[in-house]
Amino acid sequence: MIRYIHYSWSLEKQLGGLRRAGKKAELAASKCETVFSDIRRYGCQGETVLRQRTRNGELRIKNCVKYDLGGGYRLVTIRVNCHLLITFVGSHDDTDQWIEHHRYDTFVPSKLLYRCEERVAQSDIAERSDCEPLVVDDIGDEYEDQLSARLDESQLKSIFQGLFMNPPLALDRTDSAMEAKVATDKVHSTSAIR
Between 11-21 and 23-42, two packed helices, what is the crossing angle to 10 degrees? Predict the structure, then answer.
């Protein structure tokens, strides 16, 4: 459950740039605002929010979700326990560059980087004293579901064959090579003596 939503301080500047960039970018900015309100209202698992997610997901940053805003524009969010960080909005290329630049960062909700608001939805009426830990299954990655539907056990075994079979140890191969060399040396030394 998302309890706190943190908006990057640079988000308003990014949205303003989209509004000035042209018709497609302006539509993406208004769609971004719609995604914000849907997240506030329904959380990350709401049907309207799930439909906006990109098909391939994002694997470079842990718990990162990209939303398709149309016209080649994306919104990037990162979940940290019960906190949702809304970090970036921009064109597909700008988003890719931002993710690549921040892929090794540790994301922590901070007042220096994010403006925070508490999310209270109809389903959140029951008060909770602390945040529940992040479970990756909560996010549910559509891309992983598509991949697992296409893979069967034999394909997985061929990909991860080292886990299913006991490959010969490096020492065993070295010992075999040494034995062959010793045998070859014996043959050469015997023929040299004659």
Answer: 140
Residues 6+ apart with CB under 8 A from 103: 60, 61
Phi first, then psi, for residue 107 (nearest 5°) are -95, 125
Tokens found for residue 173: 């191969």
- Domain range for 175 is 161-193
**Has this prediction a pTM greater than 0.70?**
no
Establish if 187 belongs to a structural domain.
Answer: yes
Each of the 194 residues of the chain gets a pLDDT tens digit; together they read 778 888 888 888 988 888 888 888 889 888 888 888 888 888 777 777 787 888 777 888 888 889 888 888 999 988 888 888 888 999 989 989 999 988 888 888 877 777 787 776 544 444 344 454 444 444 445 666 766 777 777 777 777 777 656 555 554 555 555 555 555 555 455 555 55
In a domain, 155, yes or no: no
Same domain membership, residue 68 and residue 11: yes
Residue 89 and residue 14 in contact, taking contact as beta carbons nearer than 8 Å? yes
Residue 114 sits in the same domain as residue 183: no
Residue 20 located in a structural domain: yes
Residue 70 gets the label, from left (phi > 0), alpha (psi -120 to 50) or beta, of: left
87 lies in some domain: yes
Same-domain check for residues 83 and 16:
yes
